[in-house]
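Design job #97: recover the sequence.
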């Protein structure tokens, strides 16, 4: 299947009948030239609506549940009517899929509890609905296509809400399902975001996980390329809303793209590139609103790309500091307990920094994860707090993270100095610093009010602009 192109269309690209038409015409155009498989997200905002509905169900709010289910059904029925000449079979399926969601929501209402595995089963309906609609539309317009529920193709572990694929069985299942379709000239349309455990329990890959689904599929089917369609021109040197002369990068490496994604660039789900590394499958990030824009090509390595490539930032973060009392206890043990506590609640550490004196350390987490993180830390270190071995946890919510990324920074003396100087010239003080030994990224934690100016200053200092 060396000619196969896997394409992924996100929520905006699926957001209305008009957008679905564009996605279908891109798919059909390519399918006329090479085999194609596509992966789709739910319509924009639908996953939020589904999650919100289940929260209301847990709280016993039947009225909102009913209202949201009706909104879900109406939005998809309206899109299907607008899209299809013969919508009846699809309307019936939309009814059946939304009824499935409603049944789970009713169960949660009765239970007053929201078990993660039921949530995962319920929230994949957004993707099932779009896969159904675009497959029907493609077929109607002369490009035979078939919706495939990723629960039957992507095998994952059982970390509900943030599952990880198990590649060997995924490869076997997705090939068994999709190779016959491709051989018959049918475009497989796989749902993004979801999968199932080996025992068949539905899972999801985490918010924004459809990119990841697409790369899992591309790797499983040995695709020639993966094209990720979004609503921006590609990967940029900075967020164009913050930096006027930010420019689109023609090429970045897997490692650079992953770092940018982990550090807040919205263009790609951070875990997307991992499945592709081994087979060196190139990825294009392209804009479905501007088909003539070339996009960014993400490749295993670049011949030459000196210095920094891009700077990203994240605002909704909190810095958590833990300080063992001098000499009372092993600092390493406290660190290990703390990281374990973060892992238990599935929280992501955005950056981590420690000082040797008294082995105090600090790390950055997303603000919305802060309450569960603090609770988990309190539990994990309960004894240490009780005996006064560890000082009360200090939390600073008034911070922002920025990251300067580039493989070409490796071994370039003076680059970090220039970055720090640029930030300090603006009168912004740096609260924490981290640079891994890969020298791929420099992370700075700065006061929140200086974040945007720091990004601008670094972008200018490193000459990243157009
Ligand atoms: N629909 C899912 C979400 O909103 C997955 C995705 O869009 O990538 O998180
Ligand atoms: Mg996305």
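Job complete. Output follows.
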């Amino acid at each position: 299947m060396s000619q196969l192109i896997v394409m992924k269309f996100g929520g905006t690209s699926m957001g209305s009948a008009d957008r679905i038409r564009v996605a279908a015409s891109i798919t059909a155009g390519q399918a006329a030239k090479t085999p194609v498989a596509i992966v789709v997200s739910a319509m924009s905002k639908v996953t939020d609506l589904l999650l919100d509905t289940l929260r209301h169900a847990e709280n016993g709010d039947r009225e909102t549940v009913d209202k949201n289910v009706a909104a879900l059904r109406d939005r998809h029925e309206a899109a299907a009517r607008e899209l299809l000449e013969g919508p009846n079979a699809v309307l019936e399926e939309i009814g059946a899929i939304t009824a499935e969601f409603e049944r789970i929501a009713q169960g949660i209402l009765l239970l007053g509890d929201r078990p993660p595995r039921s949530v995962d089963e319920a929230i994949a309906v957004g993707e099932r609905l779009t896969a159904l609609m675009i497959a029907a539309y493609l077929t109607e317009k002369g490009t035979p296509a078939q919706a495939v529920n990723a629960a039957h193709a992507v095998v994952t572990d059982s970390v509900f809400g943030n599952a990880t694929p198990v590649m060997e069985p995924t490869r076997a299942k997705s090939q068994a399902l999709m190779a016959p379709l491709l051989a018959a000239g049918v475009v497989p349309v796989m749902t993004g975001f979801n999968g199932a455990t080996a025992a068949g329990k539905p899972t999801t890959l985490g918010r924004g996980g459809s990119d990841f689904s697409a790369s899992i599929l591309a790797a499983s089917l040995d695709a020639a390329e993966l094209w990720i369609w979004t609503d921006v021109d590609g990967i940029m040197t900075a967020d164009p809303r913050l930096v006027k002369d930010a420019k689109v990068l023609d090429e970045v490496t897997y490692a650079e793209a992953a770092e940018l994604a982990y550090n807040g660039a919205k263009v790609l789900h951070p875990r997307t590139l991992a499945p592709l590394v081994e087979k060196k499958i190139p990825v294009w990030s392209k804009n479905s609103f501007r088909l003539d824009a070339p996009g960014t090509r993400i490749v295993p390595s670049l011949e030459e790309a000196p210095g920094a490539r891009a700077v990203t930032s994240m605002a909704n973060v909190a810095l958590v500091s833990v300080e063992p009392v001098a000499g009372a206890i092993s600092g390493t043990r406290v660190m290990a307990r703390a990281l374990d506590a973060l892992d238990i609640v599935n929280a992501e550490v955005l950056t981590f920094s420690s000082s040797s004196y008294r082995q105090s350390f600090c790390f950055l987490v997303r603000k919305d994860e802060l309450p569960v993180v603090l609770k988990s830390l309190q539990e994990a270190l309960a004894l240490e707090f009780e005996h006064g071995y560890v000082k009360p946890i200090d939390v600073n919510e008034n911070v922002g993270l920025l990251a300067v990324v580039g493989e070409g920074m490796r071994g370039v003396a003076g680059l970090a100095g220039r970055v720090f100087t640029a930030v300090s010239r603006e009168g912004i003080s740096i609260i924490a610093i981290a640079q891994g030994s890969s020298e791929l990224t420099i992370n700075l934690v700065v006061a929140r009010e200086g974040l945007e100016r720091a990004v601008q200053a670094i972008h200018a200092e490193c000459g990243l602009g157009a």
